[in-house]
Design goal:
CATH architecture: Alpha-Beta Barrel
Strand content: 15-25%
InterPro entries: Aldolase_TIM, NanE, RibuloseP-bd_barrel
Number of strands: 8
Family: Belongs to the NanE family.
CATH class: Alpha Beta
Radius of gyration: 17 Å
EC number: 5.1.3.9
Number of domains: 1
CATH topology: TIM Barrel
Pfam family, one: NanE
Order of helices and strands: HEHEHEHEHEHEHEHEHH
CATH superfamily: Aldolase class I
Largest sheet: 8 strands, parallel, barrel
Function: Converts N-acetylmannosamine-6-phosphate (ManNAc-6-P) to N-acetylglucosamine-6-phosphate (GlcNAc-6-P).
Distance between the termini: 53 Å
């Protein structure tokens, strides 16, 4: 998809994250579940899909005509990095035709010792036309990734790194600061549980937003309800 056309399509819209890890109820070895989630999201007005693994991305692209943010989650020894960590995953994502390639953009080093900024520069050198999103946790890392060539920075990892531990809600001030000072387009992602939060993130300046667990993880949604009910009954 043409870059400007993609920007116009997702601007101000909802991207739905359709993922199921191996330990989750909706995961199956043969796949087939996440494409159904993506179809439901598309029917309800989503402007894009975020997906994990080549298999799920390929299956999703067969059933919906929406831009896909693609990632590969994989743990590596010696690093907390797990979202599209090496060039091997990058090559696989590019080969399956992701519209936006997302990588972890936090402060930890990758297995080869490279920083997030160095990794993004390497991706852009190898695939200059590939749109790249950096999943970041703080302002400094987001700026470094943007200056390295990331087209998008996401608030994805805020609250999930040692430096941001304890942040359990979407940080609207962080979204606004990025939107006003960062050269990359800002995608609000993480800790968005309610439509009102989504609207507020866009009002804070987000270019678009990603919502996953609140839409596509029934176990998480159920736990939110049962947790509230159990707290009331104590």
């Amino acid at each position: 998809m043409d870059k400007e056309k993609l920007f116009a399509q997702i601007k101000g819209g909802l991207i739905v994250s359709c993922q199921a890890l191996e330990h989750e109820p909706l995961y199956t070895k043969e796949g087939g579940v996440m494409p159904l989630m993506a179809k439901a999201a598309a029917m309800s007005g989503a402007v894009g899909i975020r997906a994990n693994t080549v298999r799920d991305i390929t299956q999703i692209k067969e059933v919906v005509d929406l831009p896909v943010i693609g990632i590969i989650k994989k743990d590596y020894p010696g690093t907390p990095m797990y979202i599209t960590v090496t060039m091997k995953e990058v090559d696989e994502l590019v080969a399956c035709g992701v519209d936006i390639l997302a990588v972890q953009g936090t402060g930890a080093l990758r297995p080869d010792g490279s920083t997030s900024a160095e990794f993004i520069r390497a991706i852009k050198a190898k695939y200059p036309d590939q749109l790249v999103m950096a999943d970041c946790d703080n302002f400094e890392n987001a700026m470094a990734c943007a200056e390295a060539g990331a087209d998008f920075v996401g608030t994805t990892m805020r609250g999930y790194t040692p430096e941001t531990q304890g942040i359990d809600d979407i940080d609207f001030d962080f979204v606004h600061k990025l939107a006003t000072e960062c050269p990359a387009k800002v995608i609000a992602e993480g800790h968005i549980h309610y439509p009102e939060q989504a609207v507020k993130a866009l009002e804070a300046g987000a270019f678009a937003l990603v919502v996953g667990g609140a839409i596509t993880r029934p176990a998480e949604i159920t736990a939110r309800f049962t947790g509230a009910i159990n707290a009331m009954n104590k």
